Amino acid sequence: MPDRPPRFQNAAAKAARQIRASASKRGYNRDWRNAREVYLAENALCVVCLQEGTTTEATEVDHIVPHKGNQALFWDVRNWQALCKSHHSRKTAHEKEPW
Question: In the chain, which stretches have pLDDT less than 50?
Fold first, then answer.
């Protein structure tokens, strides 16, 4: 059961989007899209699903430690992991702090 009624969740999400910088300003530009494509080609399966004993295509490159604008951490491949959409969404929901 959600902590807040859906109408308040939507308002909170809208407020968070207004505070947060655009994807491009956060570093998710053409260079990122190219690096992401290469990483997913080399890491095709979700690491969490593999740990759970299933195989699911990875569609997201996750920053294990949120970079919060730190470009060195953003581009550190050791801080990346391949996740499926579901696991990435769950992880991101737990990292609610906007930057």
Answer: 1, 99
